[in-house]
Amino acid sequence: MQIHTTIESLRAARARAGRVALVPTMGNLHDGHIALMRQAGEHADSVIASIFVNRLQFGPSEDFDKYPRTLESDCEKLEAAGVKHLFAPTEKVMYPQIQHYHVDPAPAQVSILDGEFRPGHFRGVATVVLKLLNIVQPDLALFGKKDYQQLMVLSNMVRELALPVEVVPGETVRAADGLALSSRNGYLSAEQRAEAPLLYSLLTRIREAVRAGDHDFLKLETEAMNTLTERGWKPDYVAIRHRADLQPPVHTCDPLVVLAAARLGATRLIDNLEI
Ligand code: PAF
């Protein structure tokens, strides 16, 4: 695998790489990322992974400084997954000066759910992803469904700005006990790790209830929020939403998704399940 730290080197390699699939990441790779790399390989001649911990998408009290940076082991995993090129720019390469131009996603899409609790987060994500797409110019780009709202924001950005790239979603990969894989799971103590699958089991319970015909969404959401609070979590939201725009559902026959975010100790976990 070739590691490119400059835009020039990456672009020169990209020009010879045929049909390219980009998998943008912030590193600390787990099996969920690797599944995306393998899926990418099925659609393209070459997979380009990127690793960049993007300061712009972290709030002032968030975990930018302590976000795990594990380049060496990430490279081993990427090699094993058959990735040909890694773009691992420094901060100076991505942001040589203060970034004055940003992508502002539609307020209706980023004032809700995670956007409500992480102001500016999706602006930072959309800005860095537009920049990565411009640098790499891939034919397709893959993003996991674990970050469901991120996937929606980025798909809409690509469509509304007519970017010449296809967005391909990847399924969430889970541990055997149901916990969605995430780089932030590494922050959990052994006790918290044993408690963490509760989030998935509550989402599963809601999915089964809705599938069985229970359409009292407010009751289902409130019950799950209460269970999380009783078990010592600090939930931000549990919300049954329309899949396409993540707004509250108007018709119960619409394709739905249930999303949740909650803090377990100092660690904020998010998850979702399509219903
Ligand atoms: O999902 C992530 O890891 C990040 O938000 C992304 C898409 C790589 C942008 O920094």
Q: Any chance you could write out the topology, listing elements then pairs?
A:
Layout: E1 2-4, H1 7-15, E2 20-25, H2 31-43, E3 46-51, H3 71-80, E4 85-87, H4 91-94, H5 107-110, H6 113-117, H7 121-136, E5 140-144, H8 148-160, E6 166-170, H9 190-195, H10 198-211, H11 217-230, E7 234-242, E8 256-264, E9 267-274
Parallel strand pairs: 1-4, 2-3, 2-5, 3-4, 5-6
Antiparallel strand pairs: 7-8, 8-9
Helix pairs in contact: 7-8, 10-11
The structure holds pantoate (PAF).
Pantoate (PAF) is lined by residues 24-26, 54, 57, 125, 128-129, 147, 150.
If you had to describe this structure to a student in words, what would you say it looks like?
The protein is an alpha/beta fold and 275 residues long. The protein folds into two domains: 2-170, Rossmann fold; 183-274, Pantoate--beta-alanine Ligase, Chain: A,domain 2 (2-Layer Sandwich), CATH 3.30.1300. It has eleven helices and nine strands. A six-stranded parallel sheet has the order 1-4-3-2-5-6, sandwiched between helices. Strands 7-8-9 form a three-stranded antiparallel sheet. A hairpin with a 2-residue loop joins strand 8 and strand 9 (267-274). Helix 7 (121-136) crosses helix 8 and helix 10 packs antiparallel against helix 11 (217-230). The chain starts with a strand and ends with a strand. Pantoate binds at residues 24-26, 54, 57, 125, 128-129, 147, 150.
